[in-house]
Write a structure and sequence with these properties.
With 172 residues, this protein is an alpha+beta fold. Helix content is 38%, strand content 24%. The strands form 2 sheets. Strands 1-2-3-4 form a 4-stranded mixed β-sheet. Helix 2 packs across helix 4. The chain starts with a helix and ends in a 12-residue tail after the last helix. 10% of the residues are buried.
Length: 172
């Protein structure tokens, strides 16, 4: 996609959201079915012809590595969101990017999630996001590109800001 096409696609949306802020609100959704035999959860991917991701225990939690790890999936969500955002921002900036790769690594102590040590944290305690960009641009432009990518990346902003999470249950 080029800069003019992106502007043409986004302009009516921006206008609509300025005139009617409530129209910019969307409810995103994910649904999974627990698989008790494999200690996993199946999540359909409607955008991929209904295929599924099957997540299970990480090998450090007793899994065999045959299924996706939810922690890895969180990092993959960060990388795909940041990569998509980087692509859109670079087009908006008029930059010619030859290649861009992103890598996210997270640190996790499995003693927490396995209940081995109640003082050990549960979940990722740090995430590093690495950008590797080859472009016909100066370092100032690349830094601005990364800064704007970080600012507009939905997953990164969700991870860095406190987000309220409410858990409910139904029996039946």
């Amino acid at each position: 996609m080029d800069r003019e096409t992106l502007k043409a696609v986004q302009a009516p949306l921006k206008q609509q959201y300025q005139e009617d802020p409530k129209s910019a609100i969307a409810i995103l959704h994910a649904e999974g079915t627990v698989d008790f035999r494999s200690l996993g959860c199946r999540v359909a991917l409607p955008c991929n012809n209904g295929r599924e991701i099957i997540a299970g225990l990480h090998p450090k939690a007793g899994g065999d590595g045959a299924h996706a790890c939810s922690g890895d999936m969180l990092l993959q969500a960060l990388v795909t969101c940041a990569g998509t955002t980087l692509a859109a921002v670079s087009i908006s900036m008029g930059l010619k990017i030859e290649e861009a790769k992103l890598e996210a690594t997270g640190l996790m102590d499995f003693r927490g999630t396995l209940g081995v040590d109640r003082t050990a944290p549960i979940g990722l305690t740090s995430i590093d996001l690495q950008f590797s960009i080859r472009a016909d641009a100066d370092s100032e432009q690349i830094q601005k590109l990364i800064q704007l990518t970080e600012r507009y990346c939905v997953v990164l902003q969700t991870l860095t800001k406190s987000v309220s999470i409410r858990s409910t249950s139904t029996l039946g």
